[in-house]
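B., you asked whether I could sanity-check this one before it goes into the benchmark set. Here's the sequence:
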Amino acid sequence: MSPEQNVDKMQEVVDYITHHVLDGQAWTLGGLHLDFAKANLPPWFTLSGLMGMIGAGLLCWLYCKVYDQKARVPRGITNFLEVIVVFVRDEIAVANLGKEDGRKYAWLFLTQFTLILTLNFMGLIPIFTTATGVLGVTAALAFTTFAAMVYLGVERFGFVGFLKNFIPHGIPLPVLFLLVPIEIAGIFIKTIVLSIRLFANMLAGHIVLFAMIGLIYIYGAPALPALLGGLFVFFLEMLVAFLQAYIFTMLSAIFVGQVLHPEH
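And here's what the prediction gave me:
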């Protein structure tokens, strides 16, 4: 193969990876190319937004149509969903917010966990794109945690009481002038950390995976050993998909728990 052909194939691989991991207003589905702009859809309707709607729609279908709430002995998909519900409720919500608050607000963390997990796994399917590899999507998910921290904190302590919780007890007054702004900034920093952590991990993993597969497309049989590496990375990405959903939800529960129980 000539160097020019190699360069052309490399560019095709780069274009595919870019299309898969970056946001846009077009979706290539096999031989079908959907252009949102030509369809007169609003500018905010992007590919990552479409993936989010597909993922949310899938979850609604599972919990509203497939999940059997009346089953005395859960079976099949219902049993699988029960495992997820109990895991998030007991190991994430109750563990970090206490029994009462954990059960009361478990729905928030269950929504975060299942949506992120669904979008992560959708990103491993070639016809879809990685919505959680787009910073705007992860920032929106992190904003739900920020909104929960502020809303639940104000609801429980009142606006003044919520602000007072940023003032540590037993600290000399001069130190408070330095410490209080840091405490207030912390609530914004936590939100930023949540969004960047998820975005960076999903983006990096998918770039590595598709780059390794792309080597086979470019160089053919001599690059077949890269297939084993690609398979290893793929299965690793399946683990990362679950792990990142868990870490995001766990950190969200910790942050909300810190707001609701500042004495701890």
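One thing to flag: The radius of gyration is 22 Å. Otherwise nothing jumped out at me.
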